[in-house]
Write a structure and sequence with these properties.
The chain is of the alpha/beta class. The chain has a single domain, classed as TIM Barrel, CATH 3.20.20.100. The protein has 10 helices and 10 strands. The longest helix is centred in the N-terminal third of the chain and has 15 residues. The model has no long low-confidence stretch (mean pLDDT 97). Bound molecules: NADP nicotinamide-adenine-dinucleotide phosphate.
Amino acid sequence: MQNLKLNNGVSIPEIGFGTWQIPDGETTAQAVKTALEYGYTHIDTAACYQNEIGVGRAIRESGVPREKLFVTTKLWNTERGYDSALRAFAASLQKLQLEYLDLYLIHWPDNKNPALNTASWQALEKLYQEGLIKALGVSNFKPRHLQPLLDTAEIKPAVNQIEYHPGFRQEETVEFCQKHHILVEAWSPLGSGRILQNPDLQRIAQKYNKSTAQLCLRWCRQNGTLPLPKSITPERIKENAQALDFEISAEDMQRINALPQFGWSGSDPDKMDF
Ligand SMILES: NC(=O)c1ccc[n+]([C@@H]2O[C@H](COP(=O)([O-])OP(=O)(O)OC[C@H]3O[C@@H](n4cnc5c(N)ncnc54)[C@H](OP(=O)(O)O)[C@@H]3O)[C@@H](O)[C@H]2O)c1
C-alpha cells in the first residue's frame, strides 16, 4: 500500500480500515488486529462508533510501532463548540490510549448553527498547533459548508470524508475538494455491501479477475479518492487489502462513472439535523 500526501505534507496510506458498526471489545480488537496483520496501517474510527477502546487495544497488542500507523477519529455532533471539542478530543485520546492523532475530523456539519462549525474548527486548530493532531479535516461537508470554513480557517482542511461509491459520486463536492487540495476519503466505498450485487459491476470485475469489492476500491483510487472499507471477516479484510494492484481501463472507469444512482445510504448532510 502506498502513501498519498495531504495538503500539509503529511503522508496518509491510500486505503484505510473502516470500523463503523463493529462492536467494541473483542470484535473490534480482533478485526483491527487482523487488518494490521494484512498490511493496513490506516484505521478510521469515530467517537460515535463507541469502539475507540477496542481500536486502541488492537494497536497496543499488535506491536506495530505507533509512528507506522495512521489513526483517525471524529468529533461527534453533541460535542460541537470550542470547549466541548477540546474535551471530546481528550476523551477520544484517552479511550484510544494514544498521545496524538494523525487525523481528527468534524463528523457532520451543523446546519442550524453554522457558527458551531467554526468554533469546533478553532479548537481543532489549537490542538494541531500543539502537535496533538497531525492533520485536520471534516466529514460530510458540502461546498456550502466548506466555503465558510475556508474563508476563516487559519489551517485549511486536509480531508473531507464523504459517502462515495459506484452509484453515488457526489461530483460537485469532489470537484470542489480537488480544486482546494482537500483529499476526499470515501466512506461506504462498498455501499455498506448494498452495491456488490450490481450486475454491471460484477461483469466488469470478472474481466479483471477481481471481486466486485476490489473493483469498487480500485475505482475509488483511480478517481482520486481514498477508500475506507470495513469488514469483520478475515478473508474479506485480506481481499480488500489487495485491491489496488491492478488498473481499470479508461473505458471501464467511464462505464462505472456513468451508472445511474444506486446504493445511496439516504444520509444527506443538508437535511441532517442531529
Ligand atoms: N464519516 C461518516 O459519516 C461515515 C459514515 C459511514 C461510514 N464511515 C466510514 O467508512 C467505513 C466503511 O463504510 P461502511 O462500514 O458503511 O461499509 P463498506 O465498507 O462500504 O461495506 C461494509 C460491508 O460490506 C461487507 N464487505 C466488506 N468487504 C467485503 C468483500 N470483500 N466482499 C463482500 N462483502 C464485503 C461487510 O461485511 P462483513 O463486515 O460482515 O465482512 C459489510 O457488511 C466505515 O466503517 C467508517 O469507518 C464514515
